[in-house]
Design brief:
The structure is a single chain. By secondary structure, the protein is an alpha/beta fold. It has three domains: 2-87, no CATH class; 89-377 and 481-512, Alkaline Phosphatase, subunit A (3-Layer(aba) Sandwich), CATH 3.40.720; 381-471. It has helices spanning 2-23, 26-34, 52-88, 103-115, 122-129, 147-156, 178-184, 200-206, 215-225, 253-259, 268-273, 302-313, 328-334, 338-361, 395-400, 405-410, 418-429, 435-442, 445-449, 459-471, 503-512; strands at 92-100, 131-136, 188-196, 229-233, 263-265, 279-282, 320-326, 365-375, 378-379, 473-474, 479-480, 484-489, 499-501. The strands form two sheets. Strands 1, 2, 3, 4, 5, 6, 7, 8, 11, 12 and 13 form an eleven-stranded mixed beta sheet that branches. Helix 6 (147-156) packs parallel to helix 21 and helix 17 (418-429) packs across helix 18. The chain binds zinc ion. Zinc ion (ZN) binds next to helix 13.
Length: 516
């Protein structure tokens, strides 16, 4: 009905525009004739009077038609206004956050997708169809943000201090989040991540704690909030120590959740079978696996979780808000692991595709895809060890990798030998390290040089020696202040463009949903 009204209103405007030159004073009429109106056999030349009578008759008819349309326009004008308003209001918001996904993570995934998988990223499709902006993310007390402050700024629109979750600088005053606002309006809500569901990004939307490490409280608050769909890892914060969890209060939140009406799923199969009511999916005691290590029967992909989430939340007639996070892009980049970073970015892109397909069928949805910060200072460098020719990223080695560096290094034990390292790197990546390079890793030279920027055992030394082989370099293990991308489509996305601060993401979502 709304679409019909919009079409009708547009038609009135279009028809009126076509008629105005015809009914204009004589001079303009001549100009219109000079431009070729009234004839399908080419423009009528000035001074041509053969069709004068016919023209007069037509003018009269058109005048009557115009009067009729004008009257209809006056009658329908209030409705047109309403229709325009309905059009810009979003019913649903889907916010996808690639944690740690800076321009190079995006670029590496784009190259891999196009050249190895022979398909473009869904994110590039969204860039073409929708709108794109650069995003900056400094906080109340830092130039380089971490995930808690970044997510808090997106969730509340206010600058946050480090490690607090949607809490004022005093550490006591909660700041209302977009999800609390939509909940009051009876919208359904969902939080999904491949990291822990109690980790900073999802937590900032539904919980308030002075320090993000208080994950026991976050788990409790997320359930009390009544988030309709909660999915991710870190089941340990829902279970008491007696059941292998980390809760010191002895509570079993899985049992409590079931009593609250949640279906609890623990595997990909259980997720598939889950009904479309409230859902708590916890697929790992710790974070969910890196995409490169994931066993598909045990843990669902981010895309599978996204699909189920949208299926459940869209049952709510009043609309929904969903935050879906590719949480482990960040973790792979912290470990300077290029293959795992790229695979998790691709898994995130697949989830973006699920959201885009949903939006195609449900156009009253504001879709926003962005990142909270860049991680690692990832650089797609040019030269190999052999030549000064620009060659770029080693897609063959990235494609060959079948395990994360974390899994690889985990097998080395406490004192790996250079021989062991050489053999493993050859087997995993098809790369022949020199003796010196293998010794650099065995000595963990990079960590020794700069332990605050390179804190993980062996991983950064490995990342460093692999740099000219993979043609991926890392400036640090930390987050960086690199500007980010933000892509969006749907009602409210017209405000996306230029350079935005991440606090403005909140403003855009709030305006799209007409929240006060
Ligand atoms: Zn991080």
């Amino acid at each position: 009905m709304t679409d019909l009204t919009i079409k009708f209103c547009s038609q009135i405007v279009l028809t009126s525009r076509r008629l105005i030159p015809i009914l204009d004073p004589p001079n303009q009429g001549i100009r219109a004739r000079q431009k070729g109106f009234f004839t399908s056999q080419g423009p009528i030349q000035p001074g041509f009077h053969g069709h004068h009578r016919k023209e007069e008759k037509m003018k009269n008819r058109l005048f009557r038609l115009f009067t009729l349309l004008f009257a209809a326009a006056v009658l329908f004008l209030p409705l047109c206004g309403q229709a325009a308003q309905t059009r810009i209001q979003a019913k649903n918001v889907i916010l996808l956050i690639g944690d740690g996904m800076g321009p190079s993570q995006f670029g590496a995934a784009w190259i891999y997708s196009n050249r190895v998988l022979s398909r473009d990223l869904r994110m590039s499709e969204l860039m073409k169809k929708g709108r794109t902006a650069y995003l900056v993310n400094d906080t109340a007390d830092a130039i380089v943000t971490e995930s808690a402050a970044a997510a808090g700024q997106i969730a509340t629109g206010q600058r946050m201090t480090a490690r607090a979750l949607s809490m004022a600088a005093d550490g006591k005053t909660p700041i209302k989040t977009i999800m609390e606002m939509v909940k009051e309006k009876k919208l359904a809500t969902g939080l999904v991540t491949t990291s822990g569901i109690t980790d900073a990004t999802p937590a900032a939307f539904a919980a308030h704690v002075a320090h993000r490490s208080n994950e026991e409280s976050v788990a409790d608050q997320e359930l009390k909030f009544g988030v309709d769909v909660l999915m991710g890892g870190r089941k340990q914060f829902f279970l008491p120590e007696s059941a292998g969890g980390k809760r010191k209060d002895g509570r079993n939140l899985l049992e409590e959740a079931q009593k609250m009406g949640y279906t609890v799923a623990g595997t990909a199969e259980e997720l598939k079978a889950a009904p479309t009511g409230k859902l708590l999916g916890l697929f790992n005691m710790g974070n969910m696996s890196f995409e490169i290590d994931r066993a598909a029967t045990q843990e669902p992909s981010l895309a599978e979780m996204a699909r189920k989430t949208l299926q459940i939340l869209s049952k709510n007639k009043g609309g929904f808000f969903a935050m879906i996070e590719g949480g482990r892009i960040d973790h792979a980049a912290h470990r300077n692991d290029a293959p795992a970073t790229i695979r998790d970015t691709l898994a995130f892109d697949e989830a973006v595709g699920v959201a885009m397909d949903f939006v195609n069928k449900n156009p009253a949805t504001l879709l926003i895809v962005t990142a909270d910060h860049e991680t690692g200072g990832m650089a797609l460098i040019g030269h190999s060890k052999e030549s000064k020719e620009y060659i770029g990223i080693n897609l063959k080695a990235i494609e060959k990798a079948t395990a994360s560096f974390e899994v690889m290094v985990g097998k080395w034990g406490k004192k790996p030998t250079p021989e062991m390292i050489k053999e493993d790197v050859k087997q995993s990546l098809g790369i022949d390290l020199t003796d010196d390079e293998a010794r650099t890793v065995a000595d963990d030279a990079i960590k020794k040089l700069d332990p605050y920027n390179y804190g993980y055992n062996y991983l950064h030394s490995l990342g460093f020696v692999l740099r000219p082989y993979l043609r991926v370099g890392w400036g640090s293990q930390t987050h960086t202040a690199s500007p980010l991308f933000l892509f969006g489509s749907g009602p409210g996305s017209e405000k996306i463009g230029g350079l935005l601060h991440n606090t403005e993401v909140f403003t855009i979502m709030k305006a799209a949903l007409r929240l006060k």
